[in-house]
Amino acid sequence: MSSRSRSSRGAISEEEINELISKLQSLLPNARRRGSSQASTTKLLKETCSYIKSLHREVDDLSDRLSDLMSTMDHNSPGAEIIRSILRS
Amino acid sequence: MASTSSSTAVDERERKRKRTSGGESPAAGAEAQPSKWQTRREHEIYSSKLFEALRLVRAGSPASSTTTPARSRLVREAADRALAVAARGRSRWSRAILASRRRRLQAAHRARLRAPTVPPSRHPSAAGTSAAPGKASKTPALARKAKVLGRLVPGCHKLPFPALLSEASDYIAALEMQVRAMTALAEVLSSVSSSASASASGSSSSSPPPA
Protein backbone atom coordinates (compact mmCIF):
# COMPACT_ATOMS: atom_id res chain seq x y z
CA MET A 1 0.00 0.00 0.00
CA SER A 2 2.00 2.96 -1.24
CA SER A 3 1.53 6.22 0.55
CA ARG A 4 1.32 7.97 -2.79
CA SER A 5 -1.89 6.17 -3.65
CA ARG A 6 -3.66 8.98 -1.80
CA SER A 7 -3.33 11.25 -4.81
CA SER A 8 -4.57 9.00 -7.53
CA ARG A 9 -3.88 11.65 -10.14
CA GLY A 10 -0.17 11.37 -9.50
CA ALA A 11 1.91 13.91 -7.61
CA ILE A 12 -0.05 16.74 -6.09
CA SER A 13 0.27 19.63 -8.49
CA GLU A 14 1.97 22.83 -7.61
CA GLU A 15 -1.19 24.62 -8.64
CA GLU A 16 -3.32 22.92 -6.02
CA ILE A 17 -0.80 23.82 -3.40
CA ASN A 18 -0.80 27.42 -4.53
CA GLU A 19 -4.56 27.46 -4.38
CA LEU A 20 -4.51 26.16 -0.83
CA ILE A 21 -1.87 28.70 0.08
CA SER A 22 -3.91 31.60 -1.26
CA LYS A 23 -7.00 30.34 0.52
CA LEU A 24 -5.05 30.24 3.75
CA GLN A 25 -3.64 33.67 3.10
CA SER A 26 -7.12 35.10 2.61
CA LEU A 27 -8.08 33.86 6.06
CA LEU A 28 -5.25 35.61 7.82
CA PRO A 29 -6.02 39.04 9.26
CA ASN A 30 -3.28 40.65 7.21
CA ALA A 31 -4.86 39.71 3.93
CA ARG A 32 -6.69 42.96 3.39
CA ARG A 33 -3.81 45.21 4.33
CA ARG A 34 -1.16 43.47 2.28
CA GLY A 35 -2.98 43.48 -1.01
CA SER A 36 -0.22 41.59 -2.78
CA SER A 37 -0.36 37.91 -3.43
CA GLN A 38 3.37 37.44 -3.33
CA ALA A 39 4.01 36.60 0.28
CA SER A 40 6.57 33.85 0.43
CA THR A 41 5.31 30.56 1.69
CA THR A 42 7.67 30.61 4.63
CA LYS A 43 6.40 33.97 5.78
CA LEU A 44 2.84 32.81 5.29
CA LEU A 45 3.38 29.72 7.40
CA LYS A 46 4.98 31.82 10.10
CA GLU A 47 2.00 34.18 10.14
CA THR A 48 -0.39 31.26 10.21
CA CYS A 49 1.39 29.75 13.20
CA SER A 50 1.41 33.00 15.14
CA TYR A 51 -2.24 33.65 14.28
CA ILE A 52 -3.29 30.22 15.52
CA LYS A 53 -1.29 30.78 18.69
CA SER A 54 -2.96 34.13 19.29
CA LEU A 55 -6.37 32.57 18.71
CA HIS A 56 -5.52 29.87 21.26
CA ARG A 57 -4.53 32.57 23.72
CA GLU A 58 -7.80 34.39 23.15
CA VAL A 59 -9.76 31.21 23.74
CA ASP A 60 -7.82 30.63 26.96
CA ASP A 61 -8.56 34.16 28.16
CA LEU A 62 -12.22 33.75 27.32
CA SER A 63 -12.28 30.43 29.18
CA ASP A 64 -10.92 32.20 32.24
CA ARG A 65 -13.55 34.87 31.93
CA LEU A 66 -16.35 32.37 31.40
CA SER A 67 -15.30 30.23 34.33
CA ASP A 68 -15.36 33.32 36.55
CA LEU A 69 -18.77 34.32 35.26
CA MET A 70 -20.09 30.81 35.70
CA SER A 71 -19.64 30.94 39.44
CA THR A 72 -21.77 34.06 39.63
CA MET A 73 -24.33 32.39 37.40
CA ASP A 74 -24.95 29.77 40.03
CA HIS A 75 -27.78 31.37 41.94
CA ASN A 76 -29.48 32.65 38.88
CA SER A 77 -31.78 30.13 37.23
CA PRO A 78 -34.02 32.77 35.62
CA GLY A 79 -30.81 34.07 34.07
CA ALA A 80 -30.23 30.71 32.43
CA GLU A 81 -33.61 30.97 30.76
CA ILE A 82 -32.80 34.43 29.47
CA ILE A 83 -29.48 33.23 28.11
CA ARG A 84 -31.10 30.33 26.31
CA SER A 85 -33.64 32.59 24.69
CA ILE A 86 -30.96 35.04 23.63
CA LEU A 87 -28.93 32.25 22.09
CA ARG A 88 -31.96 31.03 20.21
CA SER A 89 -32.85 34.38 18.68
CA MET B 1 -44.02 38.87 13.53
CA ALA B 2 -44.30 35.33 12.28
CA SER B 3 -43.68 36.50 8.73
CA THR B 4 -40.48 38.34 9.66
CA SER B 5 -39.08 35.35 11.51
CA SER B 6 -39.84 33.01 8.63
CA SER B 7 -38.33 35.43 6.14
CA THR B 8 -35.23 35.70 8.31
CA ALA B 9 -35.02 31.91 8.35
CA VAL B 10 -35.28 31.85 4.58
CA ASP B 11 -32.66 34.58 4.42
CA GLU B 12 -30.29 32.55 6.54
CA ARG B 13 -30.75 29.49 4.41
CA GLU B 14 -30.07 31.54 1.28
CA ARG B 15 -26.96 33.03 2.83
CA LYS B 16 -25.74 29.62 3.90
CA ARG B 17 -26.38 28.17 0.46
CA LYS B 18 -24.56 31.01 -1.20
CA ARG B 19 -21.60 30.64 1.11
CA THR B 20 -21.13 26.92 0.68
CA SER B 21 -19.82 26.51 -2.83
CA GLY B 22 -21.57 23.81 -4.80
CA GLY B 23 -25.13 24.83 -3.98
CA GLU B 24 -26.20 21.78 -2.02
CA SER B 25 -25.55 21.56 1.68
CA PRO B 26 -22.29 19.65 2.16
CA ALA B 27 -22.93 15.97 1.71
CA ALA B 28 -21.17 13.32 3.71
CA GLY B 29 -17.65 12.91 2.43
CA ALA B 30 -17.39 16.46 1.14
CA GLU B 31 -14.38 18.46 2.20
CA ALA B 32 -14.67 20.78 5.17
CA GLN B 33 -15.44 24.29 3.97
CA PRO B 34 -13.90 27.12 5.99
CA SER B 35 -16.72 29.43 4.95
CA LYS B 36 -19.34 27.42 6.80
CA TRP B 37 -17.92 28.67 10.08
CA GLN B 38 -19.16 32.13 9.23
CA THR B 39 -22.85 31.31 8.92
CA ARG B 40 -25.15 32.50 11.63
CA ARG B 41 -26.62 29.03 11.89
CA GLU B 42 -23.29 27.44 12.83
CA HIS B 43 -22.78 30.19 15.36
CA GLU B 44 -26.12 29.42 16.97
CA ILE B 45 -25.53 25.68 16.99
CA TYR B 46 -22.15 26.13 18.59
CA SER B 47 -23.41 28.65 21.14
CA SER B 48 -26.09 26.35 22.45
CA LYS B 49 -23.72 23.38 22.55
CA LEU B 50 -21.22 25.52 24.40
CA PHE B 51 -23.81 26.70 26.89
CA GLU B 52 -24.95 23.17 27.64
CA ALA B 53 -21.34 22.02 28.04
CA LEU B 54 -20.70 24.87 30.46
CA ARG B 55 -23.72 23.90 32.51
CA LEU B 56 -22.37 20.36 32.74
CA VAL B 57 -18.98 21.68 33.86
CA ARG B 58 -20.62 23.83 36.50
CA ALA B 59 -22.76 20.93 37.74
CA GLY B 60 -19.82 18.57 37.80
CA SER B 61 -17.52 20.80 39.81
CA PRO B 62 -19.04 22.95 42.54
CA ALA B 63 -17.28 26.28 42.88
CA SER B 64 -15.59 25.48 46.14
CA SER B 65 -13.89 22.26 45.14
CA THR B 66 -12.12 23.23 41.92
CA THR B 67 -9.52 25.96 41.70
CA THR B 68 -9.94 28.70 39.13
CA PRO B 69 -7.18 27.56 36.74
CA ALA B 70 -8.54 24.01 36.76
CA ARG B 71 -12.04 25.23 36.05
CA SER B 72 -10.96 27.40 33.17
CA ARG B 73 -9.08 24.43 31.73
CA LEU B 74 -12.31 22.44 31.95
CA VAL B 75 -14.11 25.27 30.20
CA ARG B 76 -11.47 25.39 27.47
CA GLU B 77 -11.70 21.64 26.93
CA ALA B 78 -15.48 21.75 26.83
CA ALA B 79 -15.37 24.58 24.31
CA ASP B 80 -12.90 22.68 22.11
CA ARG B 81 -15.00 19.55 22.33
CA ALA B 82 -18.14 21.45 21.37
CA LEU B 83 -16.24 22.96 18.45
CA ALA B 84 -15.09 19.53 17.32
CA VAL B 85 -18.63 18.20 17.50
CA ALA B 86 -19.86 21.14 15.48
CA ALA B 87 -17.45 20.14 12.73
CA ARG B 88 -19.49 16.95 12.39
CA GLY B 89 -16.49 14.74 11.77
CA ARG B 90 -15.57 16.27 8.44
CA SER B 91 -12.14 17.50 9.43
CA ARG B 92 -9.13 15.72 10.80
CA TRP B 93 -8.47 18.15 13.64
CA SER B 94 -12.01 17.73 14.99
CA ARG B 95 -11.73 13.95 14.94
CA ALA B 96 -8.37 14.21 16.69
CA ILE B 97 -9.80 16.38 19.50
CA LEU B 98 -12.60 13.93 20.18
CA ALA B 99 -10.40 10.85 19.79
CA SER B 100 -7.69 12.08 22.14
CA ARG B 101 -10.21 12.79 24.87
CA ARG B 102 -11.75 9.34 24.48
CA ARG B 103 -8.30 7.76 24.63
CA ARG B 104 -7.45 9.64 27.80
CA LEU B 105 -10.71 8.65 29.46
CA GLN B 106 -10.24 5.02 28.44
CA ALA B 107 -6.66 5.01 29.71
CA ALA B 108 -7.73 6.49 33.04
CA HIS B 109 -10.55 3.96 33.27
CA ARG B 110 -8.23 1.07 32.51
CA ALA B 111 -5.70 2.32 35.04
CA ARG B 112 -8.39 2.27 37.69
CA LEU B 113 -9.46 -1.29 36.85
CA ARG B 114 -6.07 -2.96 36.94
CA ALA B 115 -2.35 -2.30 37.27
CA PRO B 116 -1.15 0.35 34.84
CA THR B 117 0.17 -1.28 31.68
CA VAL B 118 1.64 0.23 28.56
CA PRO B 119 -0.78 2.89 27.32
CA PRO B 120 -2.58 2.01 24.09
CA SER B 121 -0.31 2.88 21.19
CA ARG B 122 -1.51 5.34 18.62
CA HIS B 123 -2.81 3.87 15.46
CA PRO B 124 0.25 3.61 13.22
CA SER B 125 0.18 6.07 10.37
CA ALA B 126 1.26 4.03 7.41
CA ALA B 127 2.06 7.03 5.28
CA GLY B 128 4.48 8.91 7.50
CA THR B 129 5.36 11.28 4.69
CA SER B 130 6.22 14.54 6.28
CA ALA B 131 7.69 16.01 3.12
CA ALA B 132 5.13 16.71 0.42
CA PRO B 133 5.66 15.02 -2.92
CA GLY B 134 4.43 18.19 -4.62
CA LYS B 135 6.90 20.80 -3.43
CA ALA B 136 10.12 19.28 -4.72
CA SER B 137 12.57 21.81 -3.34
CA LYS B 138 11.39 22.13 0.25
CA THR B 139 13.95 24.15 2.11
CA PRO B 140 14.57 23.22 5.73
CA ALA B 141 13.08 26.54 6.89
CA LEU B 142 9.78 25.72 5.20
CA ALA B 143 9.82 22.21 6.58
CA ARG B 144 10.44 23.55 10.08
CA LYS B 145 7.52 25.95 9.84
CA ALA B 146 5.32 23.19 8.49
CA LYS B 147 6.24 21.05 11.46
CA VAL B 148 5.35 23.83 13.89
CA LEU B 149 2.03 24.28 12.14
CA GLY B 150 1.43 20.56 12.31
CA ARG B 151 1.93 20.65 16.05
CA LEU B 152 -0.50 23.54 16.48
CA VAL B 153 -3.41 21.94 14.65
CA PRO B 154 -4.56 18.91 16.61
CA GLY B 155 -3.95 15.58 14.98
CA CYS B 156 -2.09 16.94 11.98
CA HIS B 157 1.54 16.49 12.82
CA LYS B 158 2.16 13.83 10.21
CA LEU B 159 0.08 15.19 7.35
CA PRO B 160 1.56 15.95 3.95
CA PHE B 161 1.79 19.60 3.13
CA PRO B 162 -1.39 20.19 1.09
CA ALA B 163 -3.64 18.37 3.56
CA LEU B 164 -2.00 20.30 6.39
CA LEU B 165 -2.81 23.57 4.65
CA SER B 166 -6.44 22.70 4.14
CA GLU B 167 -6.85 21.46 7.72
CA ALA B 168 -5.22 24.66 8.98
CA SER B 169 -7.63 26.81 6.95
CA ASP B 170 -10.65 25.04 8.38
CA TYR B 171 -9.18 25.11 11.89
CA ILE B 172 -8.54 28.86 11.74
CA ALA B 173 -12.07 29.59 10.57
CA ALA B 174 -13.47 27.37 13.33
CA LEU B 175 -11.30 29.02 15.98
CA GLU B 176 -12.50 32.44 14.88
CA MET B 177 -16.08 31.33 15.31
CA GLN B 178 -15.22 29.88 18.71
CA VAL B 179 -13.80 33.24 19.80
CA ARG B 180 -16.86 35.08 18.50
CA ALA B 181 -19.27 32.73 20.25
CA MET B 182 -17.38 32.70 23.56
CA THR B 183 -17.09 36.48 23.53
CA ALA B 184 -20.81 36.87 22.90
CA LEU B 185 -21.60 34.39 25.66
CA ALA B 186 -19.31 36.21 28.07
CA GLU B 187 -20.99 39.50 27.24
CA VAL B 188 -24.43 38.03 27.81
CA LEU B 189 -23.40 36.41 31.09
CA SER B 190 -21.76 39.54 32.43
CA SER B 191 -24.75 41.71 31.57
CA VAL B 192 -27.19 39.17 33.03
CA SER B 193 -25.23 38.81 36.24
CA SER B 194 -24.74 42.53 36.65
CA SER B 195 -28.42 43.27 36.10
CA ALA B 196 -29.37 40.41 38.41
CA SER B 197 -27.21 41.77 41.21
CA ALA B 198 -28.60 45.24 40.61
CA SER B 199 -32.19 44.06 40.93
CA ALA B 200 -31.33 41.86 43.90
CA SER B 201 -30.01 44.85 45.82
CA GLY B 202 -33.40 46.47 45.48
CA SER B 203 -32.47 49.33 43.17
CA SER B 204 -34.76 50.05 40.25
CA SER B 205 -33.81 48.28 37.06
CA SER B 206 -32.71 50.34 34.10
CA SER B 207 -35.19 48.92 31.62
CA PRO B 208 -38.82 49.32 32.63
CA PRO B 209 -41.08 46.36 31.83
CA PRO B 210 -43.04 46.77 28.58
CA ALA B 211 -46.48 48.17 29.26
Automatic annotation (TrEMBL), chain A:
User: What superkingdom heads the lineage?
Assistant: Eukaryota
Molecular function GO terms recorded: protein homodimerization activity
GO cellular component, alphabetical, reads: cytoplasm; nucleus
Q: Which SUPFAM superfamilies match?
A: HLH, helix-loop-helix DNA-binding domain (SSF47459)
Per the record's keyword annotation, is Transcription included, yes or no? yes
Q: Which terms does the UniProt entry file under GO BP?
A: positive regulation of unidimensional cell growth; regulation of brassinosteroid mediated signaling pathway; regulation of DNA-templated transcription; regulation of leaf development; regulation of seed growth; response to absence of light; response to brassinosteroid
List UniProt keywords, sorted A-Z: Growth regulation, Transcription, Transcription regulation
Instruction: Name its cellular compartments.
Output: Cytoplasm
Domain BHLH positions = 1-55
One Pfam family recorded for the sequence: bHLH_ILI
Q: Which InterPro entries match?
A: bHLH_dom, HLH_DNA-bd_sf, PRE
For this protein, the record's PROSITE patterns field holds:
BHLH
Establish whether keyword Transcription is in the entry: yes
The primary location reported for this protein is: cytoplasm
Q: Which family does it belong to?
A: Belongs to the bHLH protein family.
Q: What is the name of this protein?
A: BHLH domain-containing protein
* Taxonomic lineage of the native organism: Eukaryota, Viridiplantae, Streptophyta, Embryophyta, Tracheophyta
Write the gene name: LOC100832248
Automatic annotation (TrEMBL), chain B:
List the InterPro entries hit by this protein, alphabetically: bHLH_AtIBH1-like, IBH1-like, IBH1_N
Q: Where is this region: Disordered?
A: 1-41, 110-140
Subcellular location(s) per record: Nucleus
Q: Known CDD domains for this protein?
A: bHLH_AtIBH1_like
- Gene name as annotated: LOC100822091
Residues of the IBH1-like N-terminal domain: 45-104
Transmembrane segments annotated in the record for this chain: none
Quote the protein name from its UniProt record.
IBH1-like N-terminal domain-containing protein
Does Transcription regulation count among this protein's keywords? yes
Point to the regions of Low complexity compositional bias: 22-35
Tell me the GO BP annotations in alphabetical order. Answer: regulation of DNA-templated transcription
Q: What is its main location?
A: nucleus
Instruction: Give the keywords, sorted.
Output: Nucleus, Transcription, Transcription regulation
A GO term from the CC aspect = nucleus
